[in-house]
Give the backbone structure.
Amino acid sequence: MKKIIEMKGVEKVFSTEEVDTYALKDIDLSIDSGEYVSISGPSGCGKSTLLSILGLLDSATSGTFKLNDTSVLYLKEGQKSKIRNREVGFIFQSFNLISDLTVEENVALPLTYQRDISKEQRKQMVTQALEKVDMSHRKVHYPAQLSGGQQQRVAVARAIVGNPSLILADEPTGNLDSSNAEQVMTLLDRLHAEGATICMVTHDPRYASHAERIVSMLDGKIISDLKVSDIEFPEQLTKSLSTLKDRSRKC
């Protein structure tokens, strides 16, 4: 199985004159093509920092990191931007749609930087992405005209439009009610079934259980990496995440 992500000994340090603060410590993580991985843990444990580094939005201080066999940790920003645009699709908690662009224009954004795609190809790719999330009928609408659940579905379409190697989702249900959250999770499940590689940050055991693997973090470290099939849900996972929160409060 091809590895999409290979991280070894990755650390992220924020330094001041007085102290070094470790956001990530000695992270070893690998994700195979087609896997669905959830990263869980209490607030401030480093999971969003890890996701930002995986998506080349931030840089680690040390360690090694390969994305699709390309060493990316110490690339220049322009090089990272090109790889990020082609290889990574992002889904954010706050949707991050541009308010004065239509649904169709928002979804097309990642393709505008790929000069080898013609206007006709771009239109076809956007149409296909919107069809996958059942939002073709709202393509000329603006984000303010959509519900939160609809906005997140548009964000998913934007994430998948360029057929990226990796989809990163940072608390994709965080701003949604339970009904819309379930719809988004069902959509991610469907994308995974079609072969998408997904890495999702979530604090909610219900949504973490949709993944194949659950990576648990605390104080910037990975403290467990378990297959979902080896966990008894929902009791065992809920207890595990509650223990993480309790340990975090005592620190």
In short: The first strand starts at residue 3 and ends at 15. Confidence is low (pLDDT under 50) at residues 247-251. The longest helix spans residues 178-193.
